[in-house]
Amino acid sequence: LRLVAVLKAILEGEKDAVLKRGHHLPLSFHRRQEELKFSLGLQRLQHRIREIQALRDGQCRHQLPALTGPPCPSSAASSQLNVRDPQLKTEGKPPESELPALILEAVKELEAAKQQILKRIQIWKRQQQLAGNGALFEENLAPLQKRCESLVEVHFQLHQQVMAASAELGAELLPRLLERFNEVLSSLVKR
């Protein structure tokens, strides 16, 4: 009986040590940190989309004197920006490689945000499994659904910009980008 009592005391001490080490910060703190990281990633993606739009508008305006067709659509704010910035007037045509590089960076960030969502879905599934053993489980899927909807919205905005800039991207890059877009969307739907 003394041996059982000693083993029980040792195991309880180890359990307490593990709980202290693993739960030094509340779970809500970790979730909030993860949510902020995802929100920051989405804001960065939306900023990239605006950069792509502004760059496309700039290229379109630079090509305007050579074209006889209708002018390119642009917002009043971006046209005011180009009028006020003397450096943009003297630069001439923006480099052709800047737009594809910007789009590739945005697609990379889109895939990183997708990975964050898939990781969170996997954690939710694991928590659901552990709930069968009596662990606490928060069944609220609203934050996860909101993340997925936000990412899909940004996905379609970026896809729209890529399709609008398809002439500048070339025949090699466009199919690869479209394949990456399809993979992002299909993996979100499948999981």
UniProtKB/TrEMBL annotation:
Region (Disordered): 67-95
Source domain of life: Eukaryota
Residue ranges, compositional bias (Basic and acidic residues): 86-95
Domain STAT transcription factor all-alpha stretches: 105-165
Keyword set includes Ion transport: no
Coiled coil (residue ranges): none
Keyword vocabulary terms for this entry: SH2 domain
GO molecular function: DNA-binding transcription factor activity
Any GO BP: signal transduction
Designated name of the protein: STAT6 protein
Organism whose genome encodes this protein: Nyctibius grandis
Source organism phylogeny: Eukaryota, Metazoa, Chordata, Craniata, Vertebrata
